[in-house]
Amino acid sequence: MNPWLLALESVLLYLLPPVLIMTGLLPKFAVMPALWAGFLYVAFVLRRDAPELLRFHFDRRAFRRILIRFVPLAALIVLFVWHFFPQLLFSLPRRDPGLWLLVLLLYPPLSALAQEVVFRAFFCYRFGTVISNRTLFILCNALLFAYIHTVFGNPVAVLFTFIGGVLFMSTYLQTRSVTMSTIEHALYGNLVFTLGIGQFFYRIG
Questions:
Q1: Does residue 81 contact residue 89 with C-beta atoms inside 8 Å?
Q2: Where are the alpha helices (H) located in the chain, listed in sequence order?
Q3: What confidence score (pLDDT) does residue 128 get?
Q4: What contacts 93, CB < 8 A, 6 or more positions away?
Q5: Which of 150, 177, 134, 6 is nearest to 185 (CA)?
Q6: Which regions in the chain score pLDDT beneath 70?
Q7: In whole angstroms, what is the distance from residue 68 CA to residue 125 CA?
Q8: Cα separation of 62 and 82, whole Å?
Q9: Minimal CA–CA distance to 185: which of 98, 114, 102?
Q10: Among 18, 20, 32, 42, which residue's Cα sits nearest to residue 127?
Q11: What is the predicted pLDDT for the residue at 18?
Q12: Are 80 and 195 in contact (CB under 8 A)?
């Protein structure tokens, strides 16, 4: 791809949306429409040019690895919320169990999946040959993923999504499966909503 077109695409897809939202040029509720607009674009490009990066197979060994590291990390997240935000702990399921269940059902297909296609599969397509060092590649992706979440205006979202970016890209590179990185993303996403800190990751008001 022409370097200038790649730069323009990257700005429009990854860098500009948070700026427009944080400066008020776009309303905060534009977060999800912007994500889905980006998802539709990158899904079209990947299906046309690199369908091998848009695979949806289930890897049992990878799933076991995901669960093995999820358990201790989930415990650490519980401790984090209990220590720093005890008033929020399990606030969503206690306050509105119906909404909580709806989030658990809809977050994986409507948010986690779209994010994994845009930030893992497509990022690999555009930058996999540009950044040859694997560790640097994962860190750059995690930094970009954290940057996108600055739109929510709090350090919790930025810190957690940087760590999540490292985990999800590592899983995608190991499996080349959007399904596996989406499963891992959904586990942590549903966990934060269950623990009551989902407001740090999605807030339109």
A1: yes
A2: 3-10, 16-22, 31-49, 60-84, 91-95, 97-107, 113-116, 122-127, 134-148, 155-175, 178-195
A3: 94
A4: 100, 194
A5: 177
A6: 203-205
A7: 29
A8: 30
A9: 114
A10: 42
A11: 94
A12: no
pLDDT at residue 109, rounded to an integer? 97
> What are the structural domain ranges in the chain?
3-200
| 160, two tokens | 């957690």
**Which residues lie closer than 8 Å to 167 by C-beta, 6 or more apart?**
69, 184, 188
Q: What is the pTM of this model?
A: 0.95
- What does R_g of the chain's alpha carbons equal in angstroms? 17
- In this prediction, residue 204 carries a pLDDT of 47
Neighbouring C-beta atoms of residue 157, cutoff 10 Å:
22
